[in-house]
Amino acid sequence: MEFPNLRHPAHLLATWFGVGLLRPAPGTWGTLAGLVTWYFLPQAHPWIWLILPLFILLSWFVCERANQASDSGDHSSIVIDEVAGILVTLAFVPHTLFAYGLAFFLFRLFDIWKPWPISWVDQNIKGGWGILFDDLIAGFFAGAIIFTLFYYI
Fold it and tell me: Nearest CA to 140 among 102, 90, 78?
């Protein structure tokens, strides 16, 4: 089966319902789609802290399946990892447009620049977990910076 085949559920999720097929910069489009997804989730409910880990597990599974179907490993159309990463970032920030803009910028900065340990993960961990884990770390770094700015400074 050729990747992506949007009739395959794992491929549909891996491309975040086709967003990963947008060009240029599919990772940026995936990040934006994740931000919009989070914006419309009810933020006040404590169950969001159950949904986020479950979404990360689902993303790992989907990245594994997409990676197996792709001949290029971390195929550029796989953007569920960016969605998961920006959701991690947004879990730390207030529900304001300014915070969301800053979250988008910082997450993309860390995801593209890949400072250590993100670069180490990107180069040394392969498969679905490798596709996902560097974005989760980038999301955590961006979220920690924004959390510090909004709540401690």
Answer: 90
Q: List the domain boundaries for the chain.
A: 9-151
- Sequence-distant (6+) residues with CB within 8 A of 109 are 142
Q: What is the pLDDT of residues 47-82, one digit of tens each?
A: 778 889 999 999 999 999 998 887 767 789 999 999
Hey, CA dihedral for 65, 138, 87, 19, is it positive or negative?
negative
Radius of gyration, CA atoms only, the chain: 15
pTM (two decimals):
0.94
DSSP 8-class letter at 2: P
What is the torsional sign of CA 41, 44, 105, 138? negative
Give the dihedral sign, CA 36/105/29/79. Answer: negative
